Amino acid sequence: MKYKSTPEVAKLLGTSLSRLSKAIYGNKLDLPENGLNGVLLWTDADIERTRRFLGHQGQLRSGGTRRSDMIAAQWCRLGVLFKARPSRQTPDLERLLIDTATYIPDNPPLFVMSVAWLCHYGSLVAKHRLAQMASKLEDANALAVLG
Question: What is the pTM assigned to this prediction?
């Protein structure tokens, strides 16, 4: 398992180090594991929990994250109007739906736009493949979004 430092996590989440520190030391988040000299060691689970927390606090929506920007770019490629440059390649539709379900709690407009797109183009989705991919998800919120 590879650990990340707090500055790396702030950069990855697209937020400032001060916002991340306030969330941690304001007793709003559980502290990640401590390493040498009190340095926090962040696992992927710690980072995802923090991403969700900051997203619910409205602290990631303005700047976004690289992953959410990539999801928006893929939807733009499919014709959905987000303020993003369309991706260069046509996205894997079922993977995009899984990724979208994971990030909807952090980006409510993503839900509205993806549902509108599915109403018009849902027949293009390989439902058996989507069901197979969804069966491997461990995120209860994403599973609830997918229905």
Answer: 0.56
Q: Are 39 and 5 in contact (CB under 8 A)?
A: yes
DSSP string, 25-87: HTTSSPPPEE-GGG-EEB-HHHHHHHHHHHHHTTSSTTT--HHHHHHHHHHHHTT---SSPPP
The identity of residue 61, as a single letter, is R
Tell me the two tokens of residue 16. Answer: 């400032």
What span, in angstroms and rounded, lies between the C-alpha atoms of 58 and 106? 8
Q: What is the pLDDT of residues 13-37, one digit of tens each?
A: 777 777 777 776 665 666 666 665 5
Q: Where are the domains of the chain?
A: 6-56, 66-146
Half-sphere exposure of 102 (CA within 13 A, CB side): 18
**Residue with token string 């979004």:** 145
